[in-house]
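Session log. Operator J.P. requested a structure for one protein chain; no other inputs attached. Running the standard single-chain path with C-alpha cell output.
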Amino acid sequence: MKAARCTLAIVAATSISVFTPVAHAGDWGAPDPKTPVESTPETWDFGAVPYGFMTALDGSIAVGNLTAGFEMDFGDLLSNLDFAAFIATAAKKGRFSIYNDFTYAGLSPGGAGLNGLYNQIDLEMDMFIWNGIGTYRIFETEDFFLEIGGGVRFMYLSSEISAHSAALGSRPVLQRLTGLPPYANATSVSHIWDGVGALRFGYDFSDRWLLRGYGDIGGGDSDLTWQAAVNVGYVVNDSTTVFLGYRHLEYDVTQGNLNMNMAFSGPQLGVAIKF
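Structure written below.
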C-alpha cells in the first residue's frame, strides 16, 4: 500500500495542487504575438491552474489531552500521504478578479510523543482547504500591476491521535497512581472559517518571462492564518504559462478540543491554462 500511496502523491504533486491563488489563468503577461487576442475589459476570462505543491509540514496538533508533534520534509510527506487532489480556478474581468483554490489531503504522519508517559503516537488527518479571494487592480503600468482584495479561507480537518505507553502497560502500579490507561485515543472534527485580506502583484520582465507574488493574512476561527507565495513564469502562448515558485501557508487554531499549529512550505510547479 505504501508504494501505491507514493504513486498517487507523485501524480498529485506534478499535476494538480493548490492551497492559494498564486499564478492565475487570465493573467499571463504579453500574449503570443502570432495569436490575436479577442478579450476586452468587458469580457470575462476564465482559467484553471493545475500545479504541484512540494511541501514540507511542520507543527503540532493537540486533541483533548493528547498532543502529537510532526516535522516532515517533502520525501517524508510522500511516504505518509494516503491521497491528495488539488486545483485552482480564476475569473477576470477588467480590473476585477475572482480566485478559487481547492485542496484535499489525507495524511498518516505518525508523530512525536509530547505527552510524557505516552511514547508511541499515531496521527491521522484528513483536510480540505478552500480559498475564495476577490481582488481589484488599483495600479497598473505596462510592466507592473498591484491588486488588493480579500475573501475567505475554509478548512475542514478531521484528526485522530492514538497513543500508547509501554511504561503504563507494564507497570499496573504506575497506571493506578496516574489514573492513565496504557492506550488512549482522541478524535476531532473542525470546520474553520477565516476572513483574510489579500495583496497580489506582478511584474513582466519581457514578453515571455514574468513574476507573480501573493500574500494574505487574517483570522476568525483561527487565532491567525497567513500565507505568501512568489512564482516565476514563462509564457508559452496566449493560453498557457508554466511557472515555478515557493509558497508558505500557516495556521494557528484553538477551537473546541483542538489546538493546532501547522505550517506548509516548499516549492511549487504548475501550468496556468486560459479558456
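Operator note: The domain at 2-274 is CATH 2.40.128 (Lipocalin).
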